[in-house]
Design goal:
elongated; 2 helices; mainly alpha
Length: 77
């Protein structure tokens, strides 16, 4: 190992550790500013997402059935 290599490795690890600590401190500070939704808002948005998903599934199923019947009709002629 070249002279001084041990100290360069330790310094690099120290800098990485300091960057990680700074990142964690900044993340904690940012999370203190976050406004989380209330339980009722979360329930409403969840029901809305489920409803829209079911609606789109029904719509796409109808389009699929319609196109399948159209294709079957066209191929049987």
């Amino acid at each position: 190992m070249p002279p001084g290599a041990f100290f360069r490795i330790r310094a690099r690890n120290y800098i990485s550790t300091m960057k990680l600590m700074d990142y964690l401190k900044e993340t904690k500070a940012e999370l203190k500013e976050v406004v989380f939704p209330t339980t009722s808002t979360t329930i409403i948005y969840t029901m809305l997402v489920i409803g829209i998903s079911v609606g789109i599934a029904v719509l796409l199923s109808g389009v699929d059935l319609g196109l399948r019947d159209l294709l079957a009709h066209l191929l049987n002629k």
